[in-house]
Amino acid sequence: MPIRPAIAIPVGALLTGASAYLLAEPWAPHFIDRLGSQAEQAIAGAGGNGVTARFANGVGSPSRHPLLSGGEKLDEDTRAKVARAVASIPGVGGVTWADGTARAESDEPVYQPLHCQEDVEGLLRTRSIRFEEASSALLPASRMLLDEVADALRPCLGSIIAITGHTDNQGTEPGNLALSMERARVVREALVRRGIPRDGLRASGVGSSQPVEGLSPSDPANRRIEFSVIRTEPLRPTPVDTPGAR
Known about the structure:
246 residues; alpha/beta; CATH 3.30.1330.60; 3-stranded mixed beta sheet; 6 helices; 39% helix; disordered C terminus
């Protein structure tokens, strides 16, 4: 008896997904092991004595976004060099430090801010992009605010737009770093859906390390997103979400 299309299509999709999982899953540990081995070499080459890279998320599952720890006695330049060395390994995602590091010092030149910076800051002066507590889910009002932010950024398309996520100091700092990074990525994807080119967006998270001036680190108002709009000439490709020194 022939199989009806209404049944065949979802069954086929299920089998395809299952096959992809079964084929890919055995390779994941080997891929992560390879990244770990390369990270050890990169750390040693950068002079990161005592630094280790853990390629696992908060629940212990393999992750290509390593958490660096140790090396407390190293100077800031060396710590930045170590983070950049690990971030430069093919396949490695964002790199964070367990003690509160958010973003690596960059060798890129400093660019002049553009007028869109002031326009966006004006929008966020009395309102802020907010999320559900301990979550990267945007609140409905924030989705509407992002419509306005996208409109303000549109005249400066072709520039680099840095999206930085912040949290208050509730919870552990590694957890805050991960949450702030995820919130920045959510905002990046929201802007892409609103017509802002992905290649001009850079997402990063700084956890609770940069509270709003004059506010207690525990104040919920520290849970925010900030934008920086910079010129692109000359522009050399750099890793997205690349953290480094404290």
